[in-house]
Amino acid sequence: MSRIWTKYLIFGLAAALATMGRASAFIAYVSNEKGNTVSVIDTDSFTVTDTIKVGQRPRGIEFTRDGKFVMVAVGDDDTIQLIDAEKKQVVDTLPSGPDPELFIQDSAGKILYVANENDNTVTVIDLEKRARIGDIQVGVEPEGMALSPDGKILINTSETTSMAHFIDTMTRQIVANVLVGSRPRFAEFKRDGSELWISSEIGGIVSIVDPAKHVVTGKIEFAIPGLRREAIQPVGIGITKDGKMAFVALGPANRVAVVDAISHSVTKYLLVGQRVWHMAFTPDEKYLLTTNGVSNDVSVIDVAAQKVIKTIQVGELPWGITIAQP
Amino acid sequence: MLRGFVGAIAVGVAAIQTPAAGAAEIGIGYLHRASIKSALSLIAQPTEDAGVAGARLAIEDNNTTGKFLNQHFSLAEIRLKDGDDAAQAAVRLADQSGLIITDIPADELLKAADALRDRGTVLINAGAIDDSLREEDCRANVIHVAPTRSMLADALAQYLVWKQWKRWLLVVGSHDRDKLYAAALRRAAARFGAKIVQERTFEDTGGARRTDSGVTLIQRQMPVFTQQAPSYDILVAADESEVFASYLPFRTWDPRPVAGSAGLVPTSWDAAHDQWGAVQLQNRFVKMAARRMTALDMQAWTAVRIIGEAAARTNVSDVKSLFNFIKRPDFSVAAFKGQPLTLRDWNLQLRQPILLADGRMVVSVSPQEGFLHQVSELDTLGVDRPETKCKLR
């Protein structure tokens, strides 16, 4: 027993020392849908430092606001697990509805909204009490989740209904429904709240929605020479804080589109791994990490240079990614 | 009598799902035939609600979306019995629904389509896989959601060729539809470079599909039937009539796999399909129907969803506008196949990937990688535009 403790102590010390020297390093957590694991990546060395066993079919993944825990939706276990970021192991579960996939927390980190694919609902969870406090009925197969920067409007997209539902976070009532491209997967606000972007996997576009008027005002289209239209399936979206540049993961097209977020035109396509799904910026926005499901790796994109600089092997079928706030 | 039956169902639907006041009503008809389609395997026996259960689920899905758009969908069903005339029933259904989903044989579908031609009623064929309906007998008022025999045969052939199982022993049943499937398989072999080393016919001599000690007999019969064949890689069976194919796996004289009507089967859907979000649909279906989802259920689901998608996008409910929208080149429907499904404009056939399933798992999905096409890789399955005999009218 004492020997094991000594071992842990030494490991702990070594880890602490290693972290001290590199203040800029962030920690990325990647959910591996098929591997039932979460890979932990050090964004300084861009290597996998830990692999954590989690429940079945981990997909949506997010740090808690205090950075102490990582929440991961394990759909086939019908729950969200909490990983202790220090212990690097699952310590608790949250009462989500059946088959949770993606979720979002409010800015205070007190309320969690979960898309439950199997019963057409968004579940509301009190993170402090770790208790379910409400349900909102939405369209068929809810998936994408976003909160307006002022926290007043929750967006949920439903895949078969092909809509973005605007939900008042105070009353938890739907206030508007906007039809977007077929099979909407992901929603993202610009930081200034001026635009809401929604990717449509089957529609092959990103719809630009005016969040105040609840209307589609434009769309981003993609065309890659030599690739048939059906292979272009937009999923993950990342928009820089200044709202000027954006990245869109194009699924089986194996590319990330670089988009001028003002003119909504594509400026470049970056070749990444196979079936690229989701992405996350490092908090300093120097790097963007994408999950490539079929090639079981994560691509590292240098944001300023708009170049893929590294590929990191992770577990089987990487799906979601979250990077610790500084 | 028939009219009374339809009326009763329409009332029933209204009682269950009360639409919001002022909601646009979109009535969809469903015409199918009660028949004893006996399968060799007990677990493959068609249920009373085969097909229509998929349509009912899609109505629920459409109404979930519809409640946000002030649209309401309902299903009026006619189940034909022996001797009932399909065309007459279709005309009766057309009185209340301008869109009718059909699961009836090809000859009856043609009569129904011609009877409704001048009324502007649109039929959506969810059940008949005959190529003739999309070729020489194509009709401008019929959309086809069911894949064709040639699409199914091509999907299988692409995989077998990719697997380098190019020498086929083809065993064909003695019924007409078995022969049609065999013709599609022969065409597929020629297109993709497989060779049929020999062809044998399995005569249907009648008799029950289930007997208490039948298995002993089959175990002796099938090896004998397949002996002395030239060297082959795989036995391909064309037995839509369910007379013999399911008896072949593990009983061939030479140790060879089986495909076609048994073994590795090309199909539009399988209860084991779990890719591209399909688990969500599988779960919804099991919850509603208390059984697993079949290809026919999926074809009916897709037919109703095509209407729902058009109604949601256009926000109209009249048949003419919906049909025009569905025929637009940019129309597509999502159906858990990993890509949008679109209509071939020359014969209104839905393009779709085809699953290859072994009864427990989905083994592969065609088109296979490397089979290229200048328009859509899905057009490597079935009869393509340059070969079509269809002139829509």
Report on the structure:
The complex is a heterodimer of chains A (326) and B (393). Chain A has 326 residues and is mostly beta strands. Chain A has one domain (27-323): 7 Propeller (Methylamine Dehydrogenase, Chain H), CATH 2.130.10.10. Helices cover 6% and strands 52% of the residues of chain A. Chain A has one helix at residues 2-20, and strands at residues 27-32, 37-42, 47-53, 58-63, 69-74, 79-84, 89-94, 100-105, 111-116, 121-126, 131-137, 142-147, 153-158, 163-168, 173-179, 184-189, 196-200, 205-210, 215-221, 237-239, 245-249, 255-260, 265-271, 276-281, 287-292, 297-302, 307-313, 318-323. In chain A, strands 3-2-1-28 form a 4-stranded antiparallel sheet, with no helix packed on it. In chain A, strand 2 and strand 3 (47-53) form a beta hairpin. The relative contact order of chain A is 0.12. Chain B is of the alpha/beta class and 393 residues long. Chain B has 2 domains: 2-147 and 270-352, 3-Layer(aba) Sandwich (Rossmann fold); 150-267, Rossmann fold (3-Layer(aba) Sandwich), CATH 3.40.50. In chain B, the strands form 4 sheets. Chain B has a 5-stranded parallel sheet with strand order 2-1-3-4-5, with helices on both faces. A 4-stranded parallel sheet of chain B has the order 7-6-8-9, with helices on one face. In chain B, strands 10-13-14 form a 3-stranded antiparallel sheet, with helices on one face. The model of chain B is unreliable at 1-17 (pLDDT under 50). The chains are: A mainly beta (326), B alpha/beta (393). Chains A and B meet through strand 15 of A and helix 2, helix 8 and helix 9 of B.
